[in-house]
């Protein structure tokens, strides 16, 4: 199964494409969509949508796994990230890709085995699981790969359990 993991944002959208077959991971590609702070916000959203559609059309994932984002303080950032997350979900729906969403706790648990793992612990485990020479940069890219791993583990577990 081919999975596109997404760490949503509006300045930086991390993405990672992996294949998961019989408990074996293969990294297809990863990177980040970067938008310029001086660009009007609605144009930034359009760039994110267009770039995600291009990634989907290039790699043809069966699933898009997206992190659910939680905010406690900065409401302006929360609204902007939510809008960017909306165009991310739209890109999957418009291109026929099945969606799955995971909380940070679920991602940490699936990748490191511990729901309160630190960001650096999750990134190190992502590197090890995918047999990468280094932790991908920017951090959003490593996070996107971790989200894809989470989906592979979660989807596989639900299939085994017959859900």
The rounded Rg comes to 15 Å
What is the number of strand segments? 5
Structural class: alpha/beta
Q: Strand order within the widest sheet?
A: 3-2-1-4-5
Count, helices = 5
> Averaged pLDDT, please?
93
Shape: globular
* Proportion in β-strands: 15-25%
Spell out the helices and strands N to C: EEEHEHEHHH
Q: Could you characterize what this model shows?
A:
This protein is α/β, with parallel strands linked by helices and 163 residues long. The chain is 50% helix and 23% strand. It contains 5 helices and 5 strands, in the order βββαβαβααα. It has helices at 41-59, 75-94, 104-112, 119-129, 139-160, and strands spanning 2-7, 12-21, 24-34, 63-67, 98-102. The protein has a 5-stranded mixed beta sheet with strand order 3-2-1-4-5. A hairpin with a 2-residue loop joins strand 2 (12-21) and strand 3. Helix 1 (41-59) packs parallel to helix 2 (75-94), helix 3 (104-112) crosses helix 4 (119-129) and helix 3 (104-112) crosses helix 5 (139-160). The radius of gyration is 15 Å and the shape is globular. The relative contact order is 0.21.
């Amino acid at each position: 199964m081919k999975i596109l993991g997404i760490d949503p944002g509006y300045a930086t959208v991390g993405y990672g494409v992996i294949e998961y077959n019989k408990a074996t991971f293969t990294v297809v590609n990863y990177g980040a969509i970067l938008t310029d702070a001086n660009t009007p916000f609605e144009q930034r959203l359009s760039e994110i949508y267009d770039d995600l559609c291009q990634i989907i059309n290039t790699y043809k994932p069966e699933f898009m796994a997206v992190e659910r984002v939680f905010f406690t303080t900065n409401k302006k950032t929360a609204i902007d990230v939510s809008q960017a997350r909306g165009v991310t979900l739209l890109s999957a729906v418009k291109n026929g890709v099945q969606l799955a969403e995971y909380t940070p706790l679920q991602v940490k648990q699936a990748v490191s085995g511990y729901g309160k793992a630190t960001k650096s612990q999750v990134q190190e485990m992502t590197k090890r699981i995918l047999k990468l020479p280094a932790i991908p940069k920017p951090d959003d890219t490593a996070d996107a790969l971790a989200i894809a791993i989470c989906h592979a583990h979660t989807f596989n577990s639900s299939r085994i359990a017959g859900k």
